[in-house]
Amino acid sequence: MGQIDPHVNAGNMGKSTASPGGNPARSDQDTEALYPELAAFLRLARTRRSVRHFKDTPLPQGLIEQLLTAAQWAPSGYNLQPTHFIVIDSPALKKKLRPACMGQSQVEEAPAVVLFAGNRNALQHNMEATLQADLDAGAITPAYARQIRRFIQLALDPGLGGTGWMWKAFLAPVGKIMMPVPSIPAVQKTYWLGKQAALCAMNFMLAAHAAGLATVPMEGFDESRVRAVCELPAHLHVVLVVPVGYAAGDMPLKTRLPLQSMISYNGYQGKPAAGST
Ligand SMILES: Cc1cc2nc3c(=O)[nH]c(=O)nc-3n(C[C@H](O)[C@H](O)[C@H](O)COP(=O)(O)O)c2cc1C
């Protein structure tokens, strides 16, 4: 799978770790033997790193769309697919974009920058198309489509003149007293879009790494300035800016906290924060 540098420091690769109940977690050797595709995926995930210096080598023709295919296949709430990908490869536009991204040089250095933006109007723009495509593919039943049409309006429609979200915002905490209420995208639209776009961006970054490319996810940007520079409509909310290209030089691999400090089973059990005594 791809061109992964085998010489990188890959953290605790190869060691087994203990999990609760006395069952030793699988070693990497076990995983390699029993689940070769998982082993390849773990190598990919562990060796991706954020890169901030890029060669000026252009991307091979058509490759970015392959990477965006991986992004597109990320799951999305109600399969509404609200993420829009804006590819910026014009040197003039990248130069203008850099100041809106706190002057971060990777925005100008990378041959392309992808903006992962959430569509605030995904309900109106995508609902019928996605339901119809899933019906045609036999992926959903007409009864499910009817149910989704009703529920999705409740969850995502901001209501008449955009004010309907207010009663939803008010009813959610009250309703919660009587029954579980899920998070309501009409109320937390930006947060909702953030989840959808981030999943796409992660698929994109791993796909890029598999193709021997490097990326860096960025939240260090002024969202309204990025929109203005790229002349994006107001219904697109830019969630992440991701430069992509060939890494210039070797980047050290960052570390991760011990896995066991990040896991608890069947509840939290008062697990102390990592690093606390
Ligand atoms: C949501 C998010 C926002 C980030 N924003 C920036 C950024 O604006 N500039 C930057 O250089 N790195 C940014 N990073 C990269 C992180 O610094 C990096 O992921 C972290 O240090 C771990 O390193 P690794 O990605 O190489 O494992 C961001 C990462 C995430 C997940």
Description:
Among the domains are: 48-121 and 188-245, NADH Oxidase, CATH 3.40.109; 124-178, no CATH class. The longest helix has 22 residues, at 189-210. The chain starts with 27 loop residues before the first helix and ends in a 32-residue tail after the last strand. It has 277 residues and is of the alpha+beta class. The chain has helices spanning 28-34, 36-47, 63-72, 91-100, 106-109, 122-136, 142-156, 165-178, 189-210, 223-229, and strands at residues 83-88, 112-119, 214-215, 236-245. Helix 1 (28-34) packs across helix 2 and helix 3 (63-72) crosses helix 9. It is globular and about 55 Å long. Mean pLDDT is 88; it is low at 1-24. It contains 10 helices and 4 strands; from the N terminus they run H-H-H-E-H-H-E-H-H-H-H-E-H-E. A 4-stranded antiparallel β-sheet has the order 1-2-4-3, with helices on both faces. The site of flavin mononucleotide (FMN) has 10 residues, from loops.
Give short descriptive properties of this protein.
277 residues, alpha+beta, NADH Oxidase, 4-stranded antiparallel β-sheet, 10 helices, 42% helix, 9% strand, binds flavin mononucleotide
The share of residues in extended strands comes to 5-15%
Principal-axes shape call: globular
The CATH architecture designation of the domain at 48-121 and 188-245 is 3-Layer(aba) Sandwich
The level-1 CATH class of the domain at 48-121 and 188-245: Alpha Beta
**What's the mean pLDDT score?**
88
Question: Which sequence of SSEs, written as H and E, runs from N to C?
Answer: HHHEHHEHHHHEHE
Question: What is the H level of CATH, i.e. the homologous superfamily of the domain at 48-121 and 188-245?
Answer: NADH Oxidase
Number of extended strands: 4
Q: Please report the distance between the alpha carbons of the first and last residues.
A: 41 Å
The Cα radius of gyration reads 22 Å
Hetero compounds:
flavin mononucleotide
Order of the strands making up the biggest sheet: 1-2-4-3
Number of helices: 10
**What is the CATH topology of the domain at 48-121 and 188-245?**
NADH Oxidase
| Unreliable parts | 1-24
**Class computed from helices, strands and strand pairing:** alpha+beta
Helix content: 40-55%
| Major beta-sheet overview | 4 strands, antiparallel
